[in-house]
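User: Could you go from structure to sequence for me? I need the amino acid at each position, not a summary. Structure tokens:
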């Protein structure tokens, strides 16, 4: 599974010239996860535009993706609304 359009658009905006590296890093965070877009989004939010923090979040997701959801603000019941607010509606 690849990065969703809305996550890819946010990556382009947040990471600029480093967007390709950020997308490559997100591809590593896909191993067996059923909630891939949510995890990708949480990683991007955790990174706040920093490639270094993005790689740290990817590493954390390999240990326990639920920690990424907590740290990225997407672990609570309102996560769909947060995702829409931060990344826009599903296109």
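Assistant: Here is the amino acid at each position, in order:
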């Amino acid at each position: 599974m690849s990065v969703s359009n809305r996550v890819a658009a946010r990556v382009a905006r947040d990471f600029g010239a480093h967007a390709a590296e950020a997308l490559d890093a997100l591809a590593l965070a896909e191993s067996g996860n059923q909630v891939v877009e949510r995890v990708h989004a949480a990683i991007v939010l955790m990174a706040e535009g920093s490639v270094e923090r993005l790689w740290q979040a990817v590493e954390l997701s390999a240990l326990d993706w639920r920690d990424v959801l907590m740290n990225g603000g997407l672990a609570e019941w309102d996560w769909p609304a947060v995702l829409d607010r931060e990344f826009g509606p599903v296109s």
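One structural detail worth keeping in mind: The chain has six helices and no strands.
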